[in-house]
């Protein structure tokens, strides 16, 4: 009886490890998202300023682009709720 | 006894199936999300979008568009990409983003701006001829 339970317990432990790995990966993605957005935003602003756009206006457009991150997160949340 | 043993085996099999599913999900889902994010939020993607917006802005400026209007139009241009979330949200509900009245109003405004621009260009050409 004890021996029959071993594969079940093993499967449960391995499954828990996979869930932990999945959650860990999602956490890493979430943590690095802000950094990625900042880099992308800086590159976008740089290109706009290079073409002669005033710095302040370029920053406004950059902020608009960065807002896409919140939209993406909201869309993800909505899909999870569904 | 044998029935009881068979039931236990089924539970073990189910656990094994769940383990297999989770092993696939835990590797595939983060990779999928990462690639989707990288296609929108990467230095390269930002630079490309910046280049597109900058060339749009430059064309407007070269065409003689006033600075504030050129900036506003560039903002709207970028807004097309950034409002994709809204687009998807409304598409799912079968709603339209711009009402027909507002669309007509917008069309008239654009037409007016184009006519003004053409008249201005004509005046400039006439002056040059003189």
What does this structure look like?
The complex is a heterodimer of chains A (82) and B (130). With 82 residues, chain A is mostly helical. Chain A has one domain. Chain A has helices at residues 2-50, 55-81. By secondary structure, chain B is mostly helical. Chain B folds into 3 domains: 1-41; 44-95; 98-130. Helices cover 88% and strands 0% of the residues of chain B. At the A-B interface, helix 1 and helix 2 of A face helix 1, helix 2, helix 3 and helix 4 of B.
Helicity level of chain B, as a percent range? over 70%
Largest sheet of chain B: none
Individual helix count of chain A: 2
Overall number of strands of chain B = 0
Give the strand tally of chain A: 0
The profile of the biggest β sheet of chain A is: none
Order of helices and strands of chain B: HHHHH
**Residue ranges of chain B: pLDDT <50 for 5 or more in a row?**
none
User: Would you tell me the overall average pLDDT of chain B?
Assistant: 78
Average pLDDT confidence of chain A is: 85
List key phrases describing it.
heterodimer, A: 82 residues, mainly alpha, 0% strand, B: 130 residues, 3 domains, 5 helices, elongated
Question: What order do the helices and strands come in, and which of them pair?
Answer:
The complex is a heterodimer of chains A (82) and B (130).
Chain A: H1 2-50, H2 55-81
Helix pairs in contact in A: 1-2
Chain B: H1 2-40, H2 43-62, H3 67-82, H4 84-93, H5 100-129
Helix pairs in contact in B: 2-3
Brief summary:
The complex is a heterodimer of chains A (82) and B (130). Chain A is built from two helices and no strands.
